[in-house]
Amino acid sequence: MPASALHSTCPIFYSFRRCPYAMRARLALASAGIRVQLREVALRNKPAALLAASAKGTVPVLVLADGRVIDESLDIMLWALDRHDPERWLTAWTSADNADLIRENDGEFKRHLDRYKYADRYPQHPPQHYRELGEVFLAKLENLLANAAYLSGERFGISDAAIAPFIRQFAAVDHDWFARSPYGRLRLWLQNFVDSPRFQASMSLYQPWMPDSEALYFPA
Q: What contacts 23, CB < 8 A, 6 or more positions away?
């Protein structure tokens, strides 16, 4: 297909490499085999095109060829997998337990994660307080992993992809603590995720997009 034709039909995907929401959207796009024109965003200098597409100004944002905009990461995941789901990730999504687990991650756990990671912005309590609140979710995941290799069951699936980037962020706040924590199964699950080709392929470095930048595509 000529480059100009590809450009006109390929969705545009605004991303930020280290954002856990963008990470999970990239994982789903890659699993679905849906190629997008990737525009890496510098969060301190958001491009006008991103703000025009989504007034929220947060990533990820997917602009479809017909002009429709999807600007919630989970919606991007479901859109991609609804079109092509070779690894059967949506099998887990149909389970109420899996959907509820992702919602808990995105809600209560994410609030505790933000306060733990940026404890200096929330001086009402020491970092350990916010960590202990987050550990309620870690303990739940540890228990789930006692019964299956993945949160989604016997195969890596949507729950794993949706949650792992946030657990990675939680673990990174204090590596030494996480290494000593009583969540051995969770550590192994996270390490397997971080070491996996799927994660490595989703974490390539890109320069921030500018209107005159050469088009880049993901998956590569």
A: 165, 202, 203
Q: How confident is the model at residue 78 (pLDDT cuts 50, 70, 90)?
A: very high
Rounded to 5 degrees, φ, ψ at 187 are -60, -45
> What distance in Å separates the CA atoms of residue 89 and residue 83, rounded to the nearest whole number?
12
Q: How many CB atoms lie within 10 A of CB 45?
A: 8
Give one DSSP letter per residue of 63-132, joined into a string.
Answer: E-TTS-EE-SHHHHHHHHHHH--TT-THHHHTSHHHHHHHHHIIIIIHHHHHHHHTGGG-TTS-HHHHHH
Q: Residue 8's pLDDT band (boundaries 50, 70, 90)?
A: low
84 burial type by CB count under 10 A (0-12 exposed, 13-18 middle, 19+ buried): exposed
| Secondary structure of residue 149 in the 3-state scheme | coil
